[in-house]
Amino acid sequence: MEKELIFGHRNPDTDAIGTAIAYSYFQNQKGYNTEAVALGEANDETSFALKKFGFEAPRVVKTVANEVNAIMLVDHNEPQQSVEDRDKVKVTHVIDHHRISNFATIDPLYYRAEPVGCTSTVLWEMFKEQDMEIPANIAGIMLSAIISDTLLLKSPTTTDIDKEAVEDLAKIAGVDYKEYGLELLKAGTNIAAKSVEELIDLDAKSFELGGKTARIGQINVVDVPEALERKDGFLKAMTDASKENGYDLFMLVITNVLDSDSEVLFVGDDESKEVFKKAFGKELVDSEAHLPGVVSRKKQIVPPLTRAFEA
């Protein structure tokens, strides 16, 4: 069978890389010929999970049409978040848990998206439906993805299905998910060694909202005040990136993984600032706002911004 590549979004997180690895195993067991790749280097958290369960990081690709004629997507569907030459290949499968936007194909495809906390949760259901055994290392990387995306089941995106998947995968992987989960999340919070330019792009996605291009980045920390000591540098890097890439607004969400609150830094014009105020009921003070209880870009940031832009 002709080879297909499987990958998640740009600036990949643990879900994008972990689910690509697990879905490649799943599809190969069904007779497909696939390889999990990535659209960027693994971050510290993902690298911790890969090492824990004995995986090498997938190779990074910039284009795919030079290698294959068909691809499978996980953890994304929007073209601006995908590989740059996606329009030159056939998309045969999508497994996702995000909104569907600007997505179209010429041919029919397998598409499965569910409003759960993580793409690996959807894949866990698929393993169960197929009565396919999950190897311990695959269970471990899927568990890592769910813990990461749900902030150890504390995110408002968490569902009962996510909880069931975590408990089952932890048993298969042979770990205490609470103990391991805290280790995993803390592994991704060391930001001191990274530049502000690296940090604003580490987990950033672009969205088309009301005709505007919004760039929303997120970093997880255990010490928000320490991160905000670099506020001026963050704002300058966000402003420079906006000018260079044509972003109408840039939000950096700094999330405390221990108390599930976020501090937001914002760069944009006056219209965008009014939209922010309408979306969150918060005034930006010196380009900053506190959003208590907000941890999910997918559920708590993009939807209210979308509604505010369209109002």
TrEMBL record:
Residues annotated for Mn(2+) 2 binding in this entry: D15, D75, H97, D149
Binding locations of Mn(2+) 1: H9, D13, D75
Catalysed reaction equations from the record: diphosphate + H2O = 2 phosphate + H(+)
MF (Gene Ontology): inorganic diphosphate phosphatase activity; manganese ion binding
Broad class of where this protein is predominantly found: cytoplasm
E.C. number(s) listed in UniProt: 3.6.1.1
Textual note on the cofactor: Binds 2 manganese ions per subunit.
Gene3D superfamilies xrefs: DHHA2 domain, inorganic pyrophosphatase (n-terminal core)
Name by which UniProt lists this protein: Probable manganese-dependent inorganic pyrophosphatase
Taxonomic source organism: Lactobacillus equicursoris DSM 19284 = JCM 14600 = CIP 110162
